[in-house]
Amino acid sequence: MTVTSLTASAAPSEEPPAEPAALPAPWDSILPVLQEVGWRALQVAIIVVAALLIAVVLRAVIRRVVDRIVSGAKNRARVDDTQALERSPVAQVRVVQRTRTLGSILQNIVGVTIIVVALLLIVSVINPNILGSLTLLTAAIGAGLGFGAQNIVKDVLNGIFIVAEDQVGIGDVVDLGLATGIVEYVSVRVTHVRDVNGTLWYVRNGEITRIGNLSQGWSRVIVDVGVPADSDIDEVEHALQDAAAGLAKDPKWRSRIVERPEVWGLEAVTGETLVLRVVIRTRAHAKDDVAKELRVRVKRATDDLGLGATISSVRLEGHDGAHRVRGANPPQTKPTPVPIATERPVWRPKLRPKRFRETPPSPGAAPPSGTTTSPDAEA
After folding, report:
1. What confidence score (pLDDT) does residue 344 get?
2. Helix ranges (DSSP H) in the chain
3. How would you label 48-86 residue by residue, b for 16+ Cβ within 10 Å and e otherwise?
4. Quick one: which of 178, 181, 173, 184 has its CA closest to 213?
5. What is the 3-state secondary structure (H, E, C) of 282-321?
6. Bridge partners, 200 (sequence order)
7. Which candidate, 234, 242, 276, 235, places its Cα nearest to that of 261?
8. What CATH code would you report for 218-323?
9. Cβ proximity of 194 and 184 under 8 Å
């Protein structure tokens, strides 16, 4: 019997892993640089995208708030557009203008702030040492801008307060000292005013030290009427009062007048003329129209009396204007009485009343006069 021996084949030996091919010498130094540049570029891209997203979100929030305020004003006035809002009974167009102006200012501030912060972050990502090296240069530039651009900063700050406090608005008739006219545009740096001749004035907000707004609140129409010296003053005053009262009751003019007309009486005597004054308080935007109609009615009233009257409009200023702000009979300030100290009571001893003792009468003495004795006693 033949025994066949099988020889087991030996297991294959494990081969070592192949080593990566060595990079050329230049790539050993370039690859880390590329990785660093790529990582920083990715950070810069993230910063830019984040800044854009934040700017878009904040602008959308500001725009939404402005739209809600504007739509609320329009809903309260029951109108659809700003032009109709100006003619509506609830005139809140100033709220709309101020809100939109402040909204644009906030959007600009947000945009500039985000850009500056994003640039600083990008510079710090590219090279963190740059900010430290630019500290001195930045301080020098800031000092230069502080001296050179202080007028711009003054204009911007003053413009923000003018808009926020509603000192002027588009369409207002204002006296800025430097220019007088209608406001056509208000920004954070300049205000555009067009005068009666059509000249457009650009007034820097930092140069505005006082503002006289003729379109806010109320105005007063003052008309002086000169009549001959031999005229009956009471008759003329009644005629002027009737003419002004008829104007105030007219449905066409009633909504433009805020108080009852007043006749301030005889204001002056000049030669052969007596000057009487009639006054009406009106809405700010209706002063000129009411003044024209009042002069027409006063002229008709004086013509009916057969008087050749001279009529002129007056603008009070100075002490006389300040004294007559409240009307014909402003309340006078009463003198404050000087307090008088109460007198302290002087202590005095109390006097006791004297008591008189009644002495009994003697047995033989007669009774005092005016007394009667009973019969029993006599018995």
Report:
1. 64
2. 25-77, 82-87, 93-126, 128-133, 135-148, 150-164, 233-249, 287-304, 318-323, 375-378
3. eeebeeebeebbeebeeebeebbeebbeebebeeeeebb
4. 173
5. EEHHHHHHHHHHHHHHHHHHHHHCCCCCEEEECCCCHHHH
6. 194
7. 242
8. 3.30.70.100
9. yes
For residue 43, what are its two tokens?
A: 């950070």
Query: In terms of residues, how long is the chain?
Result: 379
Distance CA 206, CA 187 (A): 12
Give SS3 for 57.
Answer: helix
Q: Is 133 helix (H, G, I), strand (E, B) or coil?
A: helix
Q: With cut-offs at 50, 70 and 90, classify the pLDDT of residue 101.
A: confident
Residues 189/162, Cβ–Cβ less than 8 Å: no
Residue 208: how many other CB atoms lie within 10 Å = 20
Answer whether 40's CB lies under 8 Å from 46's CB: no
Q: Is the sign of the CA dihedral 163, 165, 168, 171 positive or negative?
A: positive
User: Which one has a higher pLDDT value, 54 or 83?
Assistant: 54
Which residue do the tokens 């904040």 mark?
58
Please provide the distance, in angstroms rounded to a whole number, between the alpha carbons at the two ends of the chain. Answer: 202
Percent of the chain with pLDDT over 90: 13
* pTM given for the model: 0.56
167-213 placed in CATH 3.30.70.100: no
Q: Do residues 183 and 174 lie in contact, with contact meaning Cβ atoms separated by under 8 Å? A: yes
**H/E element, 270:** strand 262-270
Asked whether 48 and 115 are in contact (CB, 8 A), the reply is no
Give the domain ranges of the chain.
31-138, 167-213, 218-323
Residue-level pLDDT at 3: 44
Q: Of the candidates 113, 304, 121, 314, which has an alpha carbon nearest to the alpha carbon of residue 220?
A: 314
- Whole-number average pLDDT of the chain: 75
Q: Within 13 Å of residue 180, how many CA atoms lie on the same side as its CB?
A: 5
Nearest Cα to 281, choosing from 317, 239, 251, 324? 324
